[in-house]
Amino acid sequence: MSNILRPSVAPRPGLAPAPARLAGALAAALLGACSPVPAPGPEEGGEPTAQGSIDEFAESLVAMTARRWAGPRTAAPTPEPRPEAALRREALSGHVAVHGAPGVPARTVDAALAHAEAFIAFLHAAGWAPPETDGGRGGSPALDVYLTPTPRLAEAAPDVLDPVAYLDRMHAFARVDPAPGDLEACVVRGVAEALLLSLDPAEAPAWRRATASALAYRWLGRFACGDGAQRQQQEPQRGWIAEAADEGAGGGVVLALLGEQRDGGSGRFLRELWQLARQRTWEGRAEGLRAGPDLWQALEALTDAGDRRLEDLVARIGVARFFLGAREAFGAPPGLLGLGDDMAPPLRFAIPFEALPEHTAPSEALGPYGASYGLVEVRGAPAESRLRVWLRGEHGVEWKLVVTRLDATGRPLGRLEATPDPAHPRAYLPVELTPETTHVLITAANLSHRLPDADLDDPHV
Q1: b/e per residue, 417-448, with b = 16+ CB within 10 A?
Q2: DSSP 3-state assignment of 400?
Q3: What is the torsion angle, in degrees rounded to the nearest 10, for the CA atoms of residue 242, residue 223, residue 264 and residue 336?
Q4: Backbone φ and ψ of 375, nearest 5°
Q5: How many Cβ atoms are within 10 Å of 408's Cβ, its own excluded?
Q6: Crossing angle for the helix pair 268-277 and 252-263, nearest 10 degrees?
Q7: DSSP-derived pairing of the beta strands 170-176 and 143-147
Q8: 25, 49, 99, 231: which has the highest count of C-beta atoms within 10 A?
Q9: Which helix (H) or strand (E) holds 170?
Q10: Is 70 helix (H, G, I), strand (E, B) or coil?
Q11: Nearest in space to 157 (alpha carbons), one of 215, 198, 97
Q12: What DSSP assignment string belongs to 429-460?
């Protein structure tokens, strides 16, 4: 049910698919574990027998696969008490139960239950597993949603870590404020966040909120329950996840576009992303949960295993965000149909061809993967004119410059890209203005200097 624009982008000639870094590391480890081990010779006091070779091979294999992981740890979410409830309704499927705080009308509880059950059925049809049992902590094994006042309108709350699950897992419940007008959107967001917290309790909350927002859009066809999506678009210089508006929920816009780019909006890509990032803390949980691989690492691995690098995908998403919402410059704007005009990101400059040259001075900091936009109207340009675009960026940061030719309806006609060397962050793109070109969109994006981490501040702004 997604209406997200799919920009037409021609593949770069001669660009071979990059290898999957995580997959390559795993393959190397397996090859190392399976390397034949020579039997001890007579000088070591051993006998060159077949049995000796097998024993040494077995010991080597055990040593290579021993539990010696020493990566980063993150504290497990702290269990929270369940809210007071005066009314309870449970779905016939047994997957979800809704609890109403004192004063919440029964009709509101019933409506919330219908919304939650329909959304869980949608996720199940898209390949997501149904909610795991929580041991009856809310009165039954069902996922519990509590309608109670909460500042975030909808959020997941941790209960306790699952002591028997093979992969790290946590019992969780959702808190949803019954007061906002869009009860359905908030229930959907709350259910999605609770399912994701249960699936991977070690993942950063910002990733959980962004993914829940994207899944809510998949089901509802709109971003709602808070203004995170609108704020993210109005401040396109923000980073994608940790720096996103509404404590990460604004990143749902980017993830919705990302899913459209990768799987046509089926939801399969987001599901695979979360499954790839799951892990098992078999060293003991007293020092926290294993924090790797995280979703950024999973995203890089899945992207590099496909037909392009993550940095190239960042550029495509940056351009696609420009087309969200309506713009007066185009008669029939493409994009996410049905979204408000406030989803269109602001322009750094918008000038006619006759007003060139235009020089922009640094006035805003771009977060990792954040973008900035300029628009040049070229209707009045002489025949066979050329527009010249320069980028001069801060040293030590990787930049991306993308120039896109548009027609009168805002449809992309073609694009050019440049990725300057961080040591010499300058780029130049000449744009031939064809007769059907009415506007030229200029997009600059910050590719940072390393893969982001939603648990850490990024200094490359």
Answers
A1: bbbbebeebebebebebeeebbbbbbbbbbbb
A2: strand
A3: -110
A4: -135, 130
A5: 14
A6: 110
A7: parallel
A8: 99
A9: strand 170-176
A10: coil
A11: 198
A12: EEEE--TT--EEEEEEEEEESS---TTS----
Q: Whole-angstrom Cα distance, residue 402 to residue 429?
A: 9
138 three-class SS? coil
Query: What is the layout of strands, in order, in the sheet containing 154-161?
Result: 87-90, 96-100, 143-147, 170-176, 154-161
Identify whether the C-beta of residue 216 lies closer than 8 Å to the C-beta of residue 223: yes
DSSP, res 202: T
- What is the tens place of the pLDDT at every residue in 405-434? 999 888 899 999 998 888 888 999 999 999
Backbone phi and psi for residue 299, each to the nearest 5 degrees, phi listed first: -65, -45
Say how many residues make up the chain: 461
Does the model's pTM come out above 0.85?
A: no
Chain-centroid distance, C-alpha 441 = 25
Q: What pairs with residue 215 in β-bridges?
A: none
Q: What is the per-residue pLDDT across 324-367, written as a single tens digit (0 to 9) for each?
A: 887 767 754 444 445 777 888 999 999 999 999 999 877 678 88
The residues with which 376 forms a beta bridge, in sequence order, are 351, 440
